[in-house]
Amino acid sequence: MSETAEFTIGAEVTCEDGVCGDLRRVVIDPIARTLTHLVVEPRHQRYTGHLVPIDLVDTTTKELRLRCTMAQFEALEDAEETQFLPGAPGQWGYGQNQVLSLPFFGLGMGMGGMGMGNMGMRNMGMATGPQAFAYDKVPAGEVEVRRGQHVHAADGPIGRVQGLVVDPSDHHVTHVLLAEGHLWGEKEVAIPISAVTGVDENGAQLNLTKDEVRDLPPVDIDHPA
């Protein structure tokens, strides 16, 4: 996989003047199948990540390096948003029209509006009083991919997402990096994006069988500390 850039979720990300955090998730355009944003979160500061446009990423190096300073990184759009909903002990307490859901995103299907990402909602509230929910902000028509999302072959689960491989010339996603489960030890493979048929709250679905995945060549994925 020469002339490609690997985006391993969990890897360290640096700015021009220092380390700005870790790669927490990536955002893709499911129709064009291109990488559009990285979500980089400062260490020890949960829910303070920023949406980094892919054009700010220096793809000439194997390291994840941004073409901006720390101050410019901090000025980027927040990757999470918190909303408060009325609550009471033992009930959700949602008012009329206050509906939160985990939508389905298929590769090839868009989703309009800036809203929560798939699998991105977190209850941050207490047992009583207003309920605080932090959710991932995803640009209109795009979807997010997280480290550890389940990957399902045509005949059953096979492992979890490790990251993506991207063509730096046009940001097109070429492969999904997969750490398969216990079936073949610690083997890691790159799944062609053409084999990914959809992504939803249950993970990514493939049109390959487990045996077909097993026959794919292994890749060397750098593991973040």
Can you put this structure into words, describing what you see?
4% of the residues lie in helices and 46% in strands. The protein is mainly beta and 225 residues long. The strands form three sheets. Strands 1, 12, 13, 14, 15, 16 and 17 form a seven-stranded mixed sheet that branches. Strands 2, 3, 4, 5, 6, 7 and 11 form a seven-stranded mixed sheet that branches. It is globular and about 45 Å long.
- Uncertain residue ranges: 88-119
Mean pLDDT across all amino acids: 76
Distance between the termini: 24 Å
Question: Largest sheet, described in full?
Answer: 7 strands, mixed
Number of helical elements: 2
Q: Give me the Rg, rounded.
A: 18 Å
What's this, in brief?
The chain is mostly beta strands. The chain has helices at residues 70-74, 210-214; strands at residues 5-8, 12-15, 18-29, 34-41, 50-53, 57-58, 64-66, 80-85, 115-123, 131-138, 143-146, 150-153, 156-167, 172-180, 188-192, 196-200, 203-206.
Task: Summarize the helices and strands and which ones pair or pack.
Blueprint (H helix, E strand, L loop, with lengths): L4 E4 L3 E4 L2 E12 L4 E8 L8 E4 L3 E2 L5 E3 L3 H5 L5 E6 L29 E9 L7 E8 L4 E4 L3 E4 L2 E12 L4 E9 L7 E5 L3 E5 L2 E4 L3 H5 L11
